[in-house]
Design goal:
The chain is built from three helices and 17 strands. A hairpin with an 8-residue loop joins β4 (about 60-65) and β5 (about 75-85). It is mainly beta. The chain has helices at about 35-40, 45-55, 170-175, and strands at about 15-20, 25, 30-35, 60-65, 75-85, 85-90, 90, 100, 105-110, 115-120, 125-130, 135-140, 145-150, 155-160, 165-170, 180-185, 185-190. Bound molecules: 5-phosphoarabinonic acid and manganese (II) ion (MN).
């Protein structure tokens, strides 16, 4: 279905293929790249981000490609996220993170690389799971979620969520997450976020 708005009435099933070597999903209908300049205030050390930017670098932190279905009740949206490898100061590259507007769950399936799926309730209870190939993380309704690449390679995972879930980025923008993931003595460590 090339071009045009995808609606409940014009949507037709078609085969989608995920290349299990390159993790390229075809077709995809929405893709987004998030660069350091888009994310700098989300890192616990924004000065480290400024330093990188001042050197004329603006690396891609992560990108995702979604097979977009109608944003309607009953439909599911799925796709692939890749978090590149790197750190800002001591903190590993990560996604912005969000809550869903609706009480909607989400499933993450690790495909390549290793990382953490960090989740928290609005009351601040935090849980984190290892995200590795074949690892499945279930994000319950109401839990904010962010993924972090703690490995020496790209972290790639598949996600599925209800198409009408909606994304609330405001709470994360204001308060961040209760935990941050940093490298200490060469290994990943989950520590309290001093700014939370
Ligand atoms: O809905 C999800 O949780 C994922 O599709 C994410 O949107 C994706 O990994 C990018 O993260 P964020 O939306 O926090 O930028
Ligand atoms: Mn989500």
């Amino acid at each position: 279905m090339a071009g045009g708005e995808i609606t409940v009435s014009n949507f037709k099933p078609e085969l989608v293929t995920l290349d299990l070597k390159t993790y390229v999903m075809q077709p995809f209908r929405r893709g987004k790249q998030i660069k350091l300049s888009d994310l700098k205030e989300y890192f616990s050390d924004p000065e480290a981000a400024d330093q990188i930017l001042s050197e004329g670098k603006n690396p891609i932190i992560y990108e995702y490609y979604e097979y977009a279905t109608p944003e309607a009740e009953g439909h599911l949206t799925f796709g692939v996220t890749t978090i590149y490898l790197g750190k800002v100061g001591k903190e590993y590259y990560m996604t912005r993170g969000h809550y869903h507007d609706k009480d909607a769950a989400e499933i993450y399936i690790g495909l390549s690389g290793r990382g953490l799926l960090l989740m928290q309730t609005k009351e601040g209870e935090a849980v984190y799971l290892d995200l590795k190939p074949g690892g499945i993380g279930y994000v319950p309704p109401g839990w904010g979620h962010r993924t972090i690449n703690t490995s020496g390679e790209k972290l790639v995972f598949f996600f599925i969520y209800p198409s009408d879930a909606g994304h609330d980025y405001e709470l994360v923008k204001e308060r961040g997450f209760a935990k941050i993931v940093i490298e200490e003595n060469g290994v990943p460590k989950v520590v309290d976020n001093p700014r939370f």
